[in-house]
Fold each of these.
Amino acid sequence: MPTTLAQQTLLEHYVKKILAAPVYELAVRTPLQEAPALSEALGNRILLKREDLQPTFSFKIRGAYNKLVQLGEEQKSRGVITASAGNHAQGVALAARELGIAATIVMPSTTPQLKVIGVRSRGAEAVLHGESFPFALAYALELAERTGRTFVSPFDDPDVIAGQGTVAMEILRQHQGELDAIFVPVGGGGLIAGIAAYVKYLRPEVRIIAVESEHSACLQAAMNAGERTVLPSVGTFADGVAVAQIGAFGFEVCQFCVDEVLTVSNDELCAAIKNIYDDTRSITEPSGALAVAGIKKYVARHGVQGQTLIAIDSGANINFDSLGHVAERAALEAV
């Protein structure tokens, strides 16, 4: 919750940008769905914000479109470059195609093939470079400088953050009753910054809980240090959040708007993918299941009962051949 005039002004700035973001020219309003089996098992009302149902199967289309649609005509004519583990990439590719902008996407060589195909099928150039996102990012920035194209950050940009913040706008309109906490997956911090800014401005009593993979917990490291730090390495199982440093714009909001940061293991993510499947018959990618894994840990840690908890189901771009591993690890975690 903001404690200074500057913090309040920052939240107002983002709320205005979120309300003005024209994301529905391409994105859709996704349902807020009950998770009955998970709710019964945990003794709380669990709701899933189904961002896996976006046209690119991830929330990232919101921020990508909001950024690209606001570029100047000269910038649009030169084209754009971005770096992404795959979900932002597909969002930029679709937005660029709709707006007639040439797009080059640098993706780690470890990116799931499904995401690479998703980029190329939407008309963008996919360049595979580096073993993880930080290497792809460095190369994309170099290419942007060399070619004069506009670099579109996957998370560290106010227009991208505002686009992602429309998720929170929908949640508060869809659920106007009692709400205790919203659990948000964190990679570079764009989604949680947008959600936290909007929710803390309008419903400051609602807790914002960040959930990270324990193998890429860059927000937790920054919160502990009181400043942005660079992780020495990141794991890529949850490739959608495999980021080594939280974004500067996002961290500015997170420092005073995030109530708690949780980290979860790969096996906990696999179990959460199964929980989501059992309730929705949909298959989530590892990063998309972070929030549900976080809710399970939060309930166990704090012993809360009878609360209303919302999880952002952020994406469904997982290679089919990974599902055997997920099922095997989920079964072990359930034991």
Amino acid sequence: MDKITHLIKLSVGTESVEGLQAWQDMRRKELPEGLPRHVTRMWPRRESEILAGGSIYWVIKGVIQCRQRIRRLDEVIGEDGIKRCAIILDPDIIRTANAQRRPFQGWRYLSPADAPPDLSGSAKQEDTLPPALAGALAEIGVI
């Protein structure tokens, strides 16, 4: 069995997990199969590790707050004729423990050991902290 690797990506312009969900829901009708996707210029070299059970971890307002399971990678051709990689995602967004992340370009690999754990069912029900507060608490190791 292949080793599992995740991806991590900034969700630029997103204010909250709910905002990410709303944006993906809004675009569902125009996407093949209605599955959310993220299109990127670079094809991951560690494709087999990602497809062995990897997720994309979303950084919102400087904090990892959620993830989505990666279903597959599809080749797409942009309007400019350039080949790109569409990362096809499971529609379910899974909340994770908050983890501070500095800004970065594109996506990065994330090892399972460095990935924040999923929140339990009861933790998902609790009110979420404002992103700035969650980021500050994550930075000092409180959450």
